[in-house]
Write a structure and sequence with these properties.
It is built from 22 helices and 21 strands. The protein has 693 residues and is of the alpha/beta class. The protein folds into 3 domains: 182 residues, Beta-Lactamase, CATH 3.30.450; 153 residues, Alpha-Beta Plaits (2-Layer Sandwich); 250 residues, Alpha-Beta Barrel (TIM Barrel). An 8-stranded mixed barrel has the order 13-14-16-17-18-19-20-21, surrounded by 4 helices. Helix 12 crosses helix 13. Bound molecules: guanosine-5'-triphosphate and magnesium ion (MG). Magnesium ion (MG) binds next to strand 6.
């Protein structure tokens, strides 16, 4: 398996097998070698022993018997074979020889004259025959005794008497003493069959005992080798186990046990050639949970982990054979889907994934509702390598998020640029915060009855490098996505509160001014928000009652625990809440029981056509009446004309903001505006538009 995930397994060294084979071969070779050596050695031994005995025999014969036959030795060469056989001297010699041979293993004797003629033989048939070319005879005639063993004699020597026997034949010169000349050559046949048999038996016994010793040695070594083999096996198993665990750890996600990015890339790489061969599509889908951070923030990391495991299990259920689902980080999963035959097929899988994720998850007695955004890239249309496909699926997923989440989105070419622009903008935003490039403008909020500025709404502004203002609606969603919203919000609160304090320091009479600050929904769901704002207020040294946090209706829906905690925490320290854009959402005051709001802000869309637009007039009238019935103050936004202001005041609206009273301005201008207004006679106030009755 890859990035080296398909690793080679090193085979185990099979000690016992090699030991057994090598030992067996060694034993057989040792037995053969021993046998050969022994045979050679014993034959030599037998030859030496037999020859020595025959030399002694010949010596005795030469000295005691042979001198009696000098006569026939001389005349014998003139006689033919028949005459020799019937010669009385030969008959006497025959008896003498048989006399000597009795009781000994000698089974035959020949006596050759120096010309090679057989003068005498215990086998009469051989008398008179010629052995002048016999190598044994020739050697003996030169004075060198010579012997040879004929095993299992087939020649039928001595008329067949020695057939099948082992015979030692020695040629020995006959002479009176050592220094005398050679007179004849004696050939002595000795039957060594029994001797040979005994030797062979001894030889077998020796081999057997050597083999037995080797077998015992083998047995001892076998036990040692078996023990060593077991240790090797155990170590090998342990090593394999460690390797397998290591391979698993490096290729799988620890939390969900799904393959990780490394293994996924490998699987995609493996599937691509097959997709190319069979002309199939291969899809890579990035599945990212929506707003998963809320779960971590409101219920804790442990619940978040549990949710991730459940999602991993569910996604695995959507897979077909050959598919892979991997967790590649945080709340992001990537599926490799080879063998896709059509887009319809693919969208069915994506829908199945979305629907299985949306099944509520039970956790500690509550139901969690999850959604996800899926981005899909296809081989070969969007890329031909795993990395490109994964990158494009990721872009498509981000696009699905931008389009509202809980959907699947196929990659389309221009996404590349969009995402790059977004990444660049994210970088710029982070840099802007670091370099203090953001600024706050302040828009006056007017008391419609007195016409005085009672407070300011802090509005975030960001000038780009050309000096143009970039609208918060353009960059706030991005700051929420990239996590910048939290530090940015912190900065906004700190800046606005400090500013309020600075105005008051410069003009102590302004200690009744209020400050409204907008809060992002994402930030409202962040644990610890209330502590952060409380400490900012404390550090700035302002009265918490003068700070209004602007939230929207949708932020209160959903019973989010962090929201509840933040809301009550902020209320406890005395900070107030205004409900922004009222009328555009649920328009229900029912949930105000859980969230006691201090101020209601009517959205500009209802104000813009007042008083002529009857529908808007009816809505605004109803909202004001509703608010008054529960003793809620009301601010109308987007007031641009005197007629709008007059209508609102008539309906009982308390406060207003809009271009009629002042655009958002830098802090110094705002201060001048307030001071200018407060310095005037109320009747001259530009905001005292409606004459007091
Ligand atoms: N419980 C848990 N949370 C994790 C883990 N890894 C990352 N996270 C969190 O997962 C969250 C992923 O956040 P994002 O995907 O950026 O944001 P989101 O809230 O899901 O919002 P969108 O994806 O934009 O819809 C972050 O808050 C991470 O801290 C983990 O192993 N366990
Ligand atoms: Mg997410």
């Amino acid at each position: 398996m890859a990035a080296g995930t398909a690793q080679q397994v090193i085979p185990m060294f099979r000690l016992l097998r090699y030991f057994s084979i090598a030992s067996l071969i060694s034993m057989v070779l040792a037995a053969i070698a021993l046998n050969l050596f022994n045979q050679l050695f014993e034959k030599q031994q037998l030859l030496r022993f037999g020859e020595h005995r025959n030399i002694l025999l010949t010596k005795a014969f030469s000295q005691s018997i042979w001198p009696q036959y000098q006569n026939i030795a001389k005349t014998g060469k003139m006689l033919d074979a028949g005459a020799l056989r019937s010669h009385p001297e030969i008959a006497r010699l025959n008896r003498s020889v048989w006399e000597i041979m009795r009781g000994s293993p000698t089974v035959g004797v020949n006596i050759f004259l120096l010309n090679g003629r057989t003068l005498f033989s215990t086998d009469p048939a051989q008398i008179g025959s010629n052995s002048s070319n016999d190598p044994g005879f020739l050697s003996a005639r030169r004075g060198l005794p010579s012997s040879q063993i004929v095993t299992n004699d087939k020649s039928g020597t001595f008329g067949g008497k020695l057939a099948g026997r082992d015979v030692l034949a020695s040629y020995i010169p006959i002479r009176g003493s050592e220094d005398d000349p050679i007179e004849a050559v004696m050939k002595i046949y000795t039957d060594v069959t029994e001797l040979q048999k005994n030797e062979t038996l001894e030889e077998h016994l020796l081999i057997l005992s050597v083999v037995a010793v080797l077998a015992v040695l083998y047995g001892v070594l076998f036990f040692i080798a078996r023990h060593a083999d077991r240790i090797i096996r155990k170590q090998y198993e342990q090593q394999r186990h460690v390797e397998q665990s290591l391979r698993h750890v490096t290729t799988h996600d620890a939390l969900t046990n799904l393959p990780n990015r490394l293994l996924l890339l490998d699987r995609i790489k493996q599937s691509l050639p097959s997709a190319e061969r069979h002309n199939n599509l291969l899809a890579v889908a990035t599945i990212a949970l929506d707003n998963f951070q809320n779960i971590n923030n409101s219920l804790g990391h442990q619940v978040g982990d549990k949710v991730l495991k459940i999602v991993a299990q569910r996604l695995s259920q959507c897979l077909r054979e050959g598919d892979t689902i991997a967790r590649v980080g945080g709340d992001e999963f990537v599926a490799s889907l080879p063998d896709i035959h059509s887009n319809v097929n693919l969208f069915q899988i994506a829908k199945k994934m979305l629907s299985i994720i949306s099944v509520p998850i039970e956790s500690e007695g509550r139901e969690l509702h999850l959604t996800a955004s899926i981005g899909i890239a296809l081989y070969p249309e969007h890329g031909s390598d795993a990395e490109t496909l994964m990158r494009k699926a990721d872009m498509a997923m981000h696009s699905a998020k931008r389009l509202g989440r809980n959907r699947h989105q196929m990659f389309v070419e221009h996404m590349d640029e969009q995402v790059q622009q977004q990444v660049q903008l994210e970088d710029e935003l982070w840099r802007a915060l670091k370099n203090n490039e953001f600024v706050l403008y302040y828009q006056p909020v007017i008391d419609l009855n007195s016409g005085t500025i009672i407070g300011a709404e802090a509005l975030l502004r960001w000038p780009n490098e050309h000096g143009d203002w970039i609208s918060p609606s353009e960059f706030i969603p991005l700051t929420e996505q990239c996590g910048l919203i939290v530090p940015l919000s912190e900065w906004v609160f700190s800046e606005a509160c400090t500013q309020l304090q600075m105005w008051q320091e410069r003009e102590p009479g302004l200690n009744d001014l209020t400050m409204s600050v907008n809060l992002s929904s994402r930030h409202f769901e962040t644990a610890g928000l209330s502590t952060m704002i409380a400490s900012v207020v404390e550090q700035a040294g302002i009265d918490p009652n003068r700070l209004y946090i602007e939230i929207t209706e949708s932020m209160l829906a959903g019973n989010n625990e962090s929201v509840l905690a933040n809301f009550s925490g902020l209320k406890r320290v005395g900070i107030k809440f205004s409900l922004d854009d009222f009328g555009t959402g649920y328009s229900s005051l029912g949930y105000l029981r859980n969230f006691p709001i201090d101020l209601l802000k009517i959205d500009r869309t209802f104000v813009q056509d007042l008083p002529d637009n009857a529908d808007n007039a009816a809505i605004v009238t109803t909202i004001i009446a509703l608010a008054n019935s529960v003793n809620l103050a009301v601010v109308a936004k987007g007031v641009e004309t005197g007629a709008q202001a007059a209508f609102l005041q008539e309906q009982g609206c308390h406060y207003a903001q809009g271009f009629l009273f002042g655009r958002p301005v830098p802090p110094d201008e705002f201060l001048s505006l307030v001071l200018a207004q407060r310095g005037k006679n109320p009747s001259e106030s530009p905001f005292q538009l409606i004459p007091t009755p």
